[in-house]
Amino acid sequence: SKIQNPKFSLPRYPRYKDSGVEWLGEVPEHWEVEKGLRYFFETEDRSVKGDEELLSVSHLTGVTPRSEKNITMFMAESYEGSKLCDVGDIAINTMWAWMSALGVSKYRGLVSPSYGTYRQRKPKRFNPTFLDHLIRTDVYRSHYTVNSTGITTSRLRLYPHSFLRLKFICPPSEEQDRIVAFLDQKTAEIDALIAKKQRQIELLDEQKAILINRAVTRGLNPNAKLKPSGIEWLPKIPHNWSSVKLRHLAALIQTGPFGSQLHSEEYVENGTPIINPSHMRGGRITPDFKCAITDKKVAELARHKLRCGDIVFARRGELGRCGLVTEKEEGWICGTGSLLMRPKLGQMNSEYLVLALSDRHVGEVLTLQSVGSTMDNLNTGMISDLAVPLPPTEEQTAIVETAHKITDAFRKLQLTVESQIASLQTLRSTIIVHAVTGRIKVN
Fold first, then answer.
1. Mean pLDDT value across residues 172-201
2. Cα separation of 110 and 50, whole Å?
3. For 120-155, what is each residue's pLDDT tens digit?
4. C-alpha pair distances (Å), 325 with each of 147, 280, 292, 312, 386
5. Cβ-proximal residues to 110 (8 Å cutoff; 6+ apart), any chain
6. Cα–Cα distance between 330 and 395 in angstroms, integer?
7. Of 6, 234, 263, 361, which is least surrounded by CB within 10 A?
8. How do residues 50-60 score in pLDDT, each as one tens digit?
9. pLDDT tens digits for range 396-425
10. Sign of the CA dihedral 69, 73, 75, 81?
11. Could you write out the three-class secondary structure of the chain?
12. What is the CA radius of gyration of the chain?
């Protein structure tokens, strides 16, 4: 039998044997299957003073220099007592082994003293890249979970004695080299296809934004006569539109609570969400339920409660971010880093206004006008003076409906591409696991 795919079709080995391990199943007859401790590995517990590079161990990237990752957690001033991980050593994040947070290191550096580190016994039997592929397969990952100690998943720990008693598949060295070369080629081909698909999604996003922006700033009639807008960020608008400053459309414009009114230590989980700039994306609000407050604190900040139809702006950092308050977010609290606008009833469709304010040129104008030596800051005066296009009310509604249709159409296209990416990622994993466990023969 063969594994079938338009670009992937390989035979099996002529003869197999029982590995003696239920979860490994059959392996090629001439491959070895032995316990890690007895034949292949020994623990590596060398502590050092801390003058080596720091390494990170992740389920996504394996073992990599911490300097290459965006890590915002607290960094210790001293790493004395950390373990040395040398090139070719296995490093395992003991707490996250069940997620495959482990790998064979291509770097010399330091890992946490709580991590497991293992080196190959001499003579070394594994090609490091083959070994990295093997120990990161789902076949092994499922048994890290089984052999870990702990009551719940979040508390599982894979200790050295449990890891080393696992049995490991070991083909002859020349076969390992062939398998690695094969996987380098195949994974590179698949990764290139995935990159193209991801670029397709980016292009779809760009095209969607162009179509929506055109509808929002030029209307739905491609033959409409245009006139100078008088708006700094928008040269022309349809002749039957007007331009108006937000102060004339707003029943209320105010900043969120001052820092003295709300401190981060007052946050609780699963209370009423606080909406800060990081919670606004694409005109929508996405809360962090760890950034929330109690009912008592909500009562103290009642004037900052959000209503359906309100618009929340980021007033610091990345200016131009804004989010529409829907029925779902009603009663949540405008955060310290945000600014609230409540449009007057009947004059402006709030969703149209959010679409207009999401134009990238708005963010550029606000950034130029902002003040702050270390961070851009937005105040109520700047928002009040910002001019926007104002179509007739009926046309605002039609533009919003058109934007929804455009978004839905492009979302269907994106879902198709995302499904293709998922299939390619599955194929990539399947090829790796079949190659390193001998389910296919690499010539």
1. 97
2. 7
3. 999 999 999 999 999 999 999 988 988 888 877 778
4. 48, 10, 17, 7, 20
5. 48, 50, 52, 53, 54, 55, 79, 82, 83, 84, 85
6. 26
7. 6
8. 678 899 999 99
9. 999 999 999 999 999 999 999 999 999 999
10. negative
11. CEECCCCCCEECCCCEEECCCCCCCEEECCCEEEEHHHHHEEECCCECCCCCCEEEEECCCEEEEHHHCCCCCCCCCCCCCCEEECCCCEEECCCCHHHCCEEECCCCEEECCCCEEEEECCCCCCCHHHHHHHHCCHHHHHHHHHCCECCCHHHCECCHHHHHCCEEEECCHHHHHHHHHHHHHHHHHHHHHHHHHHHHHHHHHHHHHHHHHHHHHHCCCCCCCEEEEEECCEEEEECCCEEEEHHHCEEEEEECCCCCCCCHHHCECCCEEEECHHHEECEEECCCCCCEECHHHHHHCHHHECCCCCEEEECECCCCCEEECCHHHCCCEECCCEEEEEECCCCCCHHHHHHHHCCHHHHHHHHHHCECCCCCECCHHHHHHCEEEECCHHHHHHHHHHHHHHHHHHHHHHHHHHHHHHHHHHHHHHHHHHHHCCCCCCC
12. 29
Of 35-49, 166-180, 247-261, 392-406, the least confident:
35-49
Burial class (CB in 10 A: 0-12, 13-18, 19+), 407: middle
Q: Out of 100-114, 122-136, 145-159, 308-322, pick the least confident.
A: 145-159
Q: For residue 156, how many other CB atoms are within 10 A of its CB?
A: 20
Question: Looking at residues 172-197, what average pLDDT do you find?
Answer: 97
Two tokens, residue 189 = 């081909």
Amino acid at position 231, single letter: I
Contact 353, 388 (CB under 8 A): yes
Separation between Cα atoms, residue 310 and residue 328, nearest integer Å: 12
Residue 241 pLDDT level (bands cut at 50, 70, 90): very high
Strand partners, 311: 324, 341
C-beta of residue 440 within 8 angstroms of C-beta of residue 427 = no
What's residue 155's pLDDT?
81
